[in-house]
Amino acid sequence: NASSSKHSRLRRIILNNVKNQDDAKTKEKPTARTERSLRPITIKQAVNALMEDEDHFLVDGVAVYNVCLVGAIRCISQFDTFATILIEDGTGCIDLKIRNEPALDSKEDVLSVLKADQTHIDNRIGIHIKAIGRLKYACNKLLVAVTHIRLIEDMNEFTFQMLDAIHHHLTLIKKAPVVDKSLTLSSDILSTVKKEIKECSGKDGTHIQVICQNLSSVMDESKIIEAIEELMFEGQVYRVTNELIKTTD
């Protein structure tokens, strides 16, 4: 009996250790696999993305890492070490920043990727491209730091990309409908966040990060961002620019 009791205690200890290890794993930061995830989005979704921190953004309330966009080239600026390309997909415009280094698929500079030279680079205006990269803020401006880029030679690919972005969007909002999201946020949280936005807003509104910083001692940043999204959905808060928000009253 003593031996049986000893084995039972040992078994409980082992099971508890396994459970603790499993619980710890669920609390870990995003894994390398998560960091390599790729999400197709429209430019409007990129522009409206909420910034969690310097390197992480939320689209549809979900963290995005590598994003895939398509669009028509509207402007190209070539520099010694990098180039910027302004693209437009019908939902908005955004700058792509591309470094002239072997990180690109072609292992050549952007002009070679676009099959152009400096003299005839204007001939590339209007063509469609597909780019993969990370959303970044640089000089208070949102851009995509591109790691892969190529021409789109079949417009069916452009159409498919846009439909794929819509499919991902609808799938995510169906999993977590906005109308249900409000049930997880108390009216006190919404009121507190709205009051802070109103008090901090100048003529041009206030930066989302300022609100997060001011309320950091009261609630988690994720709750603040969730509350801002809910207030936007209800029409109580709106975007002045990509970075600034303001109350409607």
TrEMBL record:
GO terms for molecular function: single-stranded DNA binding. Gene3D superfamilies: Nucleic acid-binding proteins, Winged helix-like DNA-binding domain superfamily/Winged helix DNA-binding domain. InterPro entries: NA-bd_OB-fold (IPR012340), RFA2-like (IPR040260), RPA_C (IPR014892), WH-like_DNA-bd_sf (IPR036388). Keywords: DNA-binding, Nucleus. It is found in: Nucleus. It comes from the Eukaryota. It holds the Pfam family RPA_C. One of its GO terms (cellular component) is chromosome, telomeric region. GO terms for biological process: DNA replication; double-strand break repair via homologous recombination; nucleotide-excision repair. Its main location: nucleus. Residues 185-239 form the Replication protein A C-terminal domain. This is Replication factor A protein 2. It comes from Choanephora cucurbitarum.
